[in-house]
Specification:
The complex is a heterodimer of chains A (343) and B (209). Chain A has 343 residues and is of the alpha+beta class. Chain A has 2 domains: 3-224, Clam (outer membrane lipoprotein receptor (LolB), chain A), CATH 2.50.20; 228-341, Phosphorylase Kinase, domain 1. Chain A has helices at 2-18, 20-27, 33-36, 38-55, 210-218, 329-338; strands at 58-66, 69-80, 83-90, 97-101, 104-109, 114-119, 140-150, 153-162, 169-175, 181-187, 193-204, 224-228, 231-232, 240-242, 250-258, 272-279, 284-291, 301-305, 308-315, 319-325, 339-341. Chain A has a 12-stranded mixed beta sheet with strand order 7-8-9-10-11-1-2-3-4-5-6-12, with helices on both faces. A 7-stranded antiparallel beta sheet of chain A has the order 13-15-16-17-20-19-18, covered by helices on one side. The relative contact order of chain A is 0.13. By secondary structure, chain B is mainly alpha-helical. In chain B, helix 1 packs across helix 2, helix 1 (2-20) crosses helix 3 (38-55) and helix 2 (27-36) packs across helix 3. The longest helix of chain B has 19 residues, at 2-20. Classes of the chains: A alpha+beta (343), B mainly alpha (209). At the A-B interface, strand 1, strand 2, strand 3, strand 5 and strand 11 of A face helix 1, helix 3, helix 6, helix 7 and strand 4 of B.
Chain lengths: 343, 209
């Protein structure tokens, strides 16, 4: 009895010393001792990756492979002081260019001369590269897989393996010098790659093209500009609650936004949808809620494209709930079942 | 007078916007206005172009000029018809824009159904042909990463890890909700277009019973 208490006691002391954040990191697995050595290293890599995504300027070509289809994007990301400027151009299929200055996002379709302008909440504007928070270590096991080369740069390969079956794992190639993610693969429980984003070439510390981005954003001559206005809100003030989230997922933000509507002048109304975004520090799930009119039937469905799974079906016959995320299908069902209309 | 006409135009656009959004309350007044007012038709067309552009590569693939041309041709033909909803036999040579096979199901369906069908509520069923066409293209593309062995062909395959009887795989048909791309755009950021069109990205489509 005495011996047992002592064995159980020692890790506790260590945890107290490491602080709450690390204690949480230990909370996942019952057997924490082998992972203990890896945690400080894991944490430091997560922080480097996070910092690099926010502070580094780069430009390059990002190749995206999903569900057997390949597309590439020309990406320029520039940080000037606390300002972020970005230009993303689709290199395949229909022409589309996205400009971003902080939270102002312009999307241009040069062929149809249509542009959208929207303010995106930093919290819900999912970044192009994986958005990583150290708290993910609660739900993913961290492993270093050694060195590799990506886009001509030395990289460290990191494996984030889920501790349960509620999420997918990821293999990350982090730039050895800066920590910037140069390649990310989403992998399923059997190790198959569901989706991959990789820089085929990248220039780090690229000279900021601030002026050209600002100029392009102010010059929309000849474009029909559609303003997409989203407003920040809260699930409870919209009459919704989530009783039990799948383990590890936390609310990132909640907005009311126009969606898919060809209704630039209808104002707030029919085509508005409530979006709540959740994250476990690595994987993201969006819950979209909108009124459902039984006179306009929609087909409940479950789809997969690469790592992104979508479940859409009604809630209480009056609401249409779409759950979309880079997580396995059963997790989507847990989200769908957790959404409740408040009486 | 100019003020009144501007308010009038505003009202006309609102109505077309509601109609394009599938609002039933706008159906009667909207259809009437669409039939009589050229400005209403222009607004209607614009809203659909915008909606299609934002929604999907596939829908907006045709140049806007073609769309306008098609609408004009359709109107001319409708005007020539004795009764709009009881089409008389027409010689094949007079068919407008026979190459626009995709439009063919969209626009006449929209007209017949009082425009509600196009508004994007819904589920569009298509054959698997476009998928089959795109598969070899994708397979021969540059093998940059070890992609999943699953190809779009897996539409008819069982869903691994699910195995529950209430889910049904639909064979030979791609069921798409036209708003899926909009959700995707809101969930992720960045362009979502990929070669092979939108349908090419869907590996597994399952319907709930």
């Amino acid at each position: 009895m005495h011996a047992m208490t002592r064995v159980g006691f020692r890790p506790w002391l260590v945890l107290l010393g490491l602080g709450l954040g690390w204690a949480l990191a230990f909370a996942g697995p019952p057997v924490a001792s082998p992972a203990a050595a890896a945690v400080p290293e894991a944490r430091s890599w997560m922080l480097r990756i996070q910092a690099a995504a926010r502070e580094r300027s780069y430009q390059g070509t990002l190749v995206f492979t999903s569900g057997g289809a390949v597309s590439s994007l020309r990406v320029g990301h520039f940080c000037v002081g606390d300002q972020t400027f970005e230009r993303i151009e689709a290199l395949d299929g229909r022409r589309q260019i996205i400009y971003r200055h902080n939270d102002l996002v312009h999307s241009l379709w040069p062929q149809s001369r249509i542009a959208t302008a929207e303010l995106r909440d930093a919290a819900t504007a999912a970044p192009l590269l994986p958005d990583i928070e150290p708290r993910l270590l609660e739900h993913y096991e961290f492993k270093m897989l050694g060195g590799d080369r990506v886009a001509g740069r030395e990289a460290q390969v990191l494996l984030l393996k889920p501790r349960d079956n509620l999420r997918f794992g990821q293999r990350l190639w982090a730039d050895a010098e800066t920590g910037l993610v140069l390649r990310a693969d989403v992998i399923d429980a059997h190790g198959a790659v569901l989706e991959s984003s990789v820089f085929s070439d990248i220039e780090l510390g690229a000279r900021p093209q601030r002026e050209s981005i600002v100029t392009a954003m102010n010059k929309l001559d000849g474009y029909r500009v559609v303003k997409l206005e989203s407003t920040r809100t809260r699930l409870d003030s919209e009459g919704w609650s989530i009783k039990q989230l799948p383990a590890g997922f936390q609310l990132v933000g909640c907005v009311r936004r126009p969606i898919g509507g060809p209704t630039p002048e209808a104002g707030a109304g029919a085509s508005q949808v409530l979006q709540a975004l959740y994250s476990d520090g690595l994987s993201r799930v969006s819950v979209f809620i909108e009124p459902f009119d039984p006179a306009r039937p929609r087909q409940p469905l479950l789809t997969q494209m690469g790592a992104t799974h979508t479940l859409m079906k009604p809630n209480a016959a009056r609401w249409w709930v779409t759950v979309m995320g880079d997580v396995p299908k059963p997790t989507l069902k847990l989200f769908h079942a957790a959404i409740e209309r408040q009486p | 007078m100019p003020e009144e006409s501007s308010a009038d135009l505003q009202r006309c656009r609102q109505l077309m916007s509601s109609l394009a959004d599938g609002d039933q309350n706008a159906a009667d007044a909207g259809c009437k206005l669409w039939a009589t007012d050229a400005r209403a038709r222009e607004a209607w067309h614009t809203y659909h172009l915008i909606g299609d552009t934002l929604r999907s590569d596939d829908l907006a693939a045709t140049a806007p000029a073609h769309e306008a041309e098609f609408l004009a041709a359709l109107r001319r033909r409708l005007a020539a018809e004795p009764t709009v909803l009881a089409p008389a036999p027409v010689a094949p040579s007079k068919r407008p824009q026979p190459s626009l096979a995709r439009r063919r199901w969209r626009m006449p369906a929209a007209v017949a159904a009082g425009f509600v069908a196009v508004a994007g509520v819904l589920v569009a069923s298509r054959t698997q042909a476009p998928l089959a066409d795109s598969a070899p293209v994708l397979a021969s593309g540059p093998a940059i990463t070890p992609a999943t062995p699953a190809t779009p062909v897996s539409i008819a395959a069982p869903v691994p890890g699910l195995g529950e009887p209430q889910w049904q795989v639909v064979e030979g048909q791609v069921i798409r909700d036209a708003r899926l791309d909009s959700y995707l755009r809101a969930h992720r950021r960045g362009p979502i277009g990929v070669p092979g069109g939108d349908a090419g990205r869907f590996e597994t489509v399952v319907l709930e019973r």
